[in-house]
Amino acid sequence: MDLFDNKKASPLAEDETNPFADLDDLDVELALDSLEMTTVRSVYDRQLLRELAPLLPYEVALANRAILLEKQQDGTFFVGMCSHKNLIHLSNVARAMRVSTKALHPRVLLPQRFERLLEEVYDLTVAQSDANSGDDTSDDQQQKSVDWNQFAEVQPEGRFEFDEREIEIGTGTGLRALAERIILNAIGQRASDVHLVPQYQEGYILFRTDGEMYKAYKNIPRPVMENLANAFCDMANVNAYQVAQDEVAREIQINIKTNSGRKDRRTLRFQGIPGQYGRIIVIRIQSNDFRGFHMIGLEESQITQIENSLFHKVGLCLVTGPTGSGKSNTLEAMLRKVEEIRPGRINIIQIGNPIEFPNPEREQIPLKTDEDWDRFFKATLRMDPDILSPGEFRNASEAGIVFQAAATGHLTLTTLHTNNVAQTCSRLDFLGIERDKQSSLLRLIASQELVPLLCPHCKEPDPNGPQIVDHLVNLIFPNRPDLRNALGGAKNLPFYRRVGCRRCNNRGIKLRTCIAEVLTVTPDISLMLRNKVDGQEIVNLAVRRHGMITIAEAAARKLCRGLIDYNDVVHLLMSTNEEAPENTSYSWQTQPIVENDLSTADDSDPDTNDYIDAEVIYEQEEPARVAA
What we know:
Layout: H1 25-34, H2 46-52, H3 58-64, E1 66-71, E2 77-81, H4 87-97, E3 104-108, H5 111-121, H6 124-133, H7 164-167, H8 174-188, E4 191-197, E5 202-209, E6 212-221, H9 222-235, H10 240-243, E7 248-257, E8 263-274, E9 279-287, H11 293-296, H12 300-309, E10 315-320, H13 327-341, E11 348-352, E12 363-366, H14 373-380, E13 387-392, H15 396-407, E14 411-416, H16 421-430, H17 435-441, E15 442-454, E16 460-461, H18 465-476, H19 481-488, E17 496-497, E18 509-520, H20 523-530, H21 535-546, H22 551-560, H23 566-569, E19 615-618, E20 625-626
Parallel strand pairs: 2-3, 10-14, 10-15, 11-12, 11-13, 13-14
Antiparallel strand pairs: 1-2, 4-5, 4-9, 5-6, 7-8, 7-19, 7-20, 8-9, 15-18, 16-17
Helix pairs in contact: 3-4, 8-9, 16-21, 17-20
């Protein structure tokens, strides 16, 4: 029987082929007794039941379909339950009562009788008082840690038992608590995604931290994976059986009360889909942690370019890059700079799914689904905006609306999926944006990618340093004597590689930095756009005449500072950059000075221990979305 399906707890009452179908509730319970199933007594003292009711809050009784029936002399309780074999419901009741599950003796209770007892035992006063006092139950409760290796020691299906004292965390209980523990552990490790991946015999759980996947827990028996999938569905208020049949998405707002007392707001985006060996569940952990231009790793000249473009009152500024490249953070930094330039004098309208950085000074419009984007964006054009930030556009229709907004007297800041500046021109061509519009409306194109930073505590010199020098000087930047002279005159080569230590969870990397290229659309570049010149030729002119830093050069600069591993940026150093600036004042840094790079500061890294046994507080949840 599925632990989350209460309807299966009493099949006798509704089955027409069942010999007990014509019996009333009491007769059915007596029939169950004949099947060696322990049932409730036919009569209980209503006054005694009312005296026991305050021990079990009304909300818990209703959610878990349980009623306290009797207290024994040894301190244990008889509890009537519609799903008497449901370990999670039993654990929920025990958690609310602050007793061990061993102190509870379940008794079979039919749904019809449960409803009658619930009405008789709980009046409005009791339910209200329990609701008001519910927030105080978890503050004083001792939280216990979980041995995560217990996954590998689980008994075969049907024999697995849970030790409530070990898995109790947050506001959940039973397997729900275990699911919350996994989420809290992921947040403590700065993970952006949690993947529950079932396999034929044993499954595993993946975390994505700093853009890289790794197995956080492995060798999880299949029955435990099934129950964990149920628990994650329960946490997201999603029908577990629905996920087994179709794609289901859900968004959950939570507040985490950490051990230090601060509250951390997070958005969890649940995505479930049926897989070959069970339900595959991915949870995206989003936060409103923000980093300004100087903290994300942009070069100083690039920051100046971006800030100068924000003085325009009409036009379009694009931030491009692949998925997970930090475009939203850069866009937020641009919006905050605009607010700094013109404080309190402009109306900024922002559309998002979701709104990642809530700001009371803006008119922010969250979308329920991506299909609402064009309708809502068209509506914002009639809401007297000065600055529009519509989020990412993906197709020709949306691209047309964005350029229309920029053409009607608004500065529009948005994002697009491309890999570099040169490809952005081709992408806009593909989306049906004429070059005349690109020429007259584009003000800036910034393309970026996030690359892992080496852990400053354990990195070691790369023994392939001479080969890296040869690759950079002779193949990638053959016309850059400034780079050749800097590396040729270095006493010690500045290249490092990953190692791994306790501070970086033995991964050799910690946090990420932004590798970017920024193109300012100057009059000569605007003319090239109008004449339909290829995007790469436009970039070559910008490098030669305006000193544009390409994404390859930005990667080389951080490589020479000893901040990143060559293997993490080799894909950015694949093609030759034959163009060189006519005038350059940049002095290549060939000594690692990690302590001066703000993007590596440990102060921005959450303390993992602060999330151990933290309390999860759920906010109002939105309805689940099922694929058509």
